[in-house]
């Protein structure tokens, strides 16, 4: 594979929407997502009202890359070899002795070493994006509550979380103004969404002018997609994209057979009829990558058009696009932004604080004191030996399945299209593919982590 990656060499440029093209105000959106679930659990399922009260300190629990064991209520952070680096029961972190007794130095029982481990299973759930993370805090606090009040050792609350998802985010929720999430986003989009800067809008137009086919592939439903795009890009956003695919239900969009996942036509944002194939550009629902690629062949006149896909979720975007479709992948990794922008925020006068201010989340892309770095962590040494640093499982997946990783699209919007990025696969370095800079903790420890990895 070539040492470098360039957008100029791509025929097709595809984008995820949420947390990729559309950036959210994370401290605000996190509280809204948390409340949408917590209020459902308390009002509809009879959970303890203490779930409704969140302190600013509680948000430190949130860290991408955690797995929740749905049976025992433990959250874990994995090393790249599948061993457990840190763990908590609910929000209560396990001491090193308890961690060693519970997990030892062996692979976690659900680990699959090919790094293609499912994020969604009947036994565990992986938290790998900013829509999920507030749910991690909520589930941890549910475990705390059930342990304290009922003395529970095993847990079955997940069915109630799924019911909360269905209530707040079902396909008709936007139109029906159902739940808490959509009505609030509609009421005050500027509170939760960042508009695309002019540099990004010009860059999208530049890609079009250069003859690229532009795709938007999102698991959000058509009506919510329209609201987001009109707010962040303007009412003429459809002029930018040749093909828009909503309700894509990723990763199934990439992994399922065409017969399992046909494209559907849309009218007034509602699905109408299933299509045996995809014959022309337009706005569609559901679908599959195989039929999409057949259309891209026709549109480009090439047998193997080169596609790059931008996304924020390793589970839904990056892994499946690379693994099943062999597309180039650009991971939007806001931890790169939080890594270098970690400045204390100036406090506002009390009278200026909004209604959620008391429970305002820390930016979710910044370092968690409880869980440590998203990228590397220490393994305590045996007696008379030093601690050693190892890569996390999340970090390994980034370098395995991403072509490059960037903090935001804005970070590359003013570069020429023929700019040559160093790929992750271009050397043995674990930092080669990060642009514009690798995470500070990796830069400072690259030789150490490589030396101590095995």
Q: Which geometry do the CA atoms define?
A: globular
Tally of individual helices: 15
- Uncertain runs are 342-358, 448-454
The major sheet is characterized as:
9 strands, mixed
**Within the largest sheet, what's the order of strands?**
13-12-14-11-10-2-15-16-19
Helix content: 25-40%
Which helices and strands appear, and what pairs or packs with what?
Blueprint: E1 4-5, E2 12-15, E3 23-24, H1 26-45, E4 66-69, E5 74-78, E6 84-89, E7 92-93, H2 96-103, E8 124-127, H3 133-150, H4 158-169, H5 173-176, H6 181-187, H7 189-192, E9 193-194, H8 198-209, E10 213-217, H9 222-233, E11 243-246, H10 252-255, E12 263-267, E13 270-275, E14 282-286, H11 289-300, E15 307-311, H12 314-323, E16 328-332, H13 335-340, E17 376-379, E18 388-391, H14 393-401, E19 404-406, E20 421-422, H15 440-452
Parallel strand pairs: 2-10, 2-15, 10-11, 11-14, 15-16, 16-19
Antiparallel strand pairs: 1-20, 3-9, 4-5, 4-8, 5-6, 6-7, 12-13, 12-14, 17-18
Helix pairs in contact: 1-3, 1-4
General description of the model:
The protein is 33% helix and 17% strand. It contains 15 helices and 20 strands. The protein has helices at 26-45, 96-103, 133-150, 158-169, 173-176, 181-187, 189-192, 198-209, 222-233, 252-255, 289-300, 314-323, 335-340, 393-401, 440-452, and strands spanning 4-5, 12-15, 23-24, 66-69, 74-78, 84-89, 92-93, 124-127, 193-194, 213-217, 243-246, 263-267, 270-275, 282-286, 307-311, 328-332, 376-379, 388-391, 404-406, 421-422. The strands form 5 sheets. It has a 9-stranded mixed β-sheet, sandwiched between helices. Strand 10 (213-217), helix 9 and strand 11 form a beta-alpha-beta unit. Helix 1 (26-45) packs parallel to helix 3 (133-150) and helix 1 (26-45) crosses helix 4.
């Amino acid at each position: 594979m070539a040492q470098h990656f360039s957008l100029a060499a791509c025929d097709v440029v595809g984008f995820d929407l949420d947390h990729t093209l559309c950036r959210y105000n994370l401290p605000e959106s996190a509280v809204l997502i948390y409340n949408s679930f917590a209020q459902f659990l308390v009002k509809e399922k009879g959970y303890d009202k203490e779930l409704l009260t969140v302190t600013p300190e509680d948000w430190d629990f949130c860290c991408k890359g955690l797995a929740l064991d749905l049976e025992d209520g433990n959250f874990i952070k994995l090393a790249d070899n599948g061993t457990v680096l840190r763990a908590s029961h609910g929000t209560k972190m396990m001491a090193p002795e308890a961690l060693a007794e519970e997990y030892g130095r062996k692979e976690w029982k659900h680990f699959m070493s090919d790094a293609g481990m499912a994020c969604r299973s009947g036994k565990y759930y992986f938290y790998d994006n900013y829509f999920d993370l507030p749910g991690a805090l909520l589930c941890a606090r549910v475990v705390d509550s059930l342990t304290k009040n009922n003395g529970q050792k095993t847990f079955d609350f997940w069915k109630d979380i799924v019911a909360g998802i269905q209530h707040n985010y079902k396909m008709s929720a936007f139109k029906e103004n159902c739940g808490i999430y959509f009505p609030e986003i509609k009421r005050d989009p500027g509170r939760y969404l960042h508009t695309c800067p002019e540099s990004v809008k010009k860059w999208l137009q530049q890609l079009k002018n250069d003859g690229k086919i532009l795709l938007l592939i999102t698991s959000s439903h058509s009506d919510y997609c329209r609201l987001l795009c009109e707010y962040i890009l303007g009412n003429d956003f459809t002029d930018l994209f040749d093909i828009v695919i909503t309700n894509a239900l990723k990763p199934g969009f990439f992994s399922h057979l065409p017969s399992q996942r046909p494209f559907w036509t849309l009218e007034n944002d509602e699905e109408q009829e299933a299509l045996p194939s995809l014959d022309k550009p337009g706005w569609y629902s559901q679908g599959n990558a195989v039929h999409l690629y057949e259309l891209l062949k026709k549109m480009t006149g090439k047998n193997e058009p080169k596609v790059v896909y931008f996304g924020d979720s390793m589970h839904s975007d990056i892994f499946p696009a690379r693994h099943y479709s062999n597309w180039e992948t650009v991971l939007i990794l806001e931890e790169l932004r939080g890594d270098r922008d970690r400045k204390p925020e100036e406090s506002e006068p009390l009278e200026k604080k909004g209604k959620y201010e008391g429970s305002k989340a820390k930016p979710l892309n910044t370092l968690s004191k409880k869980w440590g770095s998203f990228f590397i962590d220490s393994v305590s040494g045996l007696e008379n030996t030093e601690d050693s640093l190892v890569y996390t499982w999340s970090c390994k997946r980034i370098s395995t399945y991403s072509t490059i990783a960037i903090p935001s699209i804005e970070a590359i919007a003013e570069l020429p299209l023929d700019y040559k990025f160093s790929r992750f696969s271009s050397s043995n370095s674990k930092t080669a593919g990060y642009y514009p800079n690798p995470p500070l903790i990796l830069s400072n420890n690259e030789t150490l982590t490589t030396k101590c990895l095995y």
